[in-house]
Amino acid sequence: MDLIKKLLGIIALSLLLSGNAYADNIKDFQIEGISLGDSALDYFEKKELKKLTRTNKSKVYDKYCSNESQKISQKFTTYEKGICFYTKRNDKSYIIESIAGFQDFPNNIAACYNEQDNVDKEIRKLFPNTKREVYDEYKNPIDRSGQSTERDIVYVFNDGSEAGTACLKWGKKWLKKNPKSSTHLQVFLDTKEYAKWLKDGMK
User: Fold this and answer.
1) N or C of the chain: less Cβ packing under 10 Å?
2) Contact present, 95 and 88 (Cβ < 8 Å)
3) Each residue of 89-145: pLDDT tens digit?
């Protein structure tokens, strides 16, 4: 019998959990009802996906996002700031390799860290036998000014896939060029290949 799938979602700044709390397969977990390995075509029309494709210099993955300014589905309501997911470029099946939900904490990194810790306590209950890695506040390499910081808590599964949280605080120079950015919390699920791509510097 398959394990019951679980939902990871922030509602009223807390984690909503359901199902068996001790599964160890990342595909048994969901963000907004979506799991790694699902086809985006099960949730979106192809015309929606093509309209919101965001390219990357690596020419490896395509990025799709739903947020307040770009609603691609009214059924996704758990995450205030929306969701983003990646598929391999030119994958006609649109298989999801990474998905993340976002929650804003405008100008309040302390509140973001506090909620990240609260969420992590619940995630640890779900992944008691999974390797846990903590990356304390470090400079976000995306912002070359060195002003933006990030803090990650990552769970690495035996197959190399990853789940976890991240708090991002953008610096003044970044915000000047990207005014829509905000301090925020991410809850994410990544396949082994996608996680490696990130660690390799998105080459």
Assistant:
1) N
2) yes
3) 989 999 999 999 888 899 899 999 999 999 898 888 888 888 999 999 999 888 899
What per-residue confidence (pLDDT) applies to 23? 52
d(CA 53, CA 49): 6
Q: Answer positive or negative: Cα dihedral of 53, 119, 79, 47.
A: positive
The domain of 188 spans 102-199
- 13 inside domain: no
For 171: left if phi > 0, alpha if psi spans -120 to 50, otherwise beta; the answer is: beta
Band of residue 8 on the pLDDT scale cut at 50, 70, 90: very low
Domain count, the chain: 1
pLDDT of 13 strictly over 80? no
- Residue 112 domain-assigned? yes
Label residue 152 by pLDDT band (50, 70, 90). very high
pTM here?
Answer: 0.82
Question: Is 183:105 a contact under the CB 8 Å cutoff?
Answer: yes
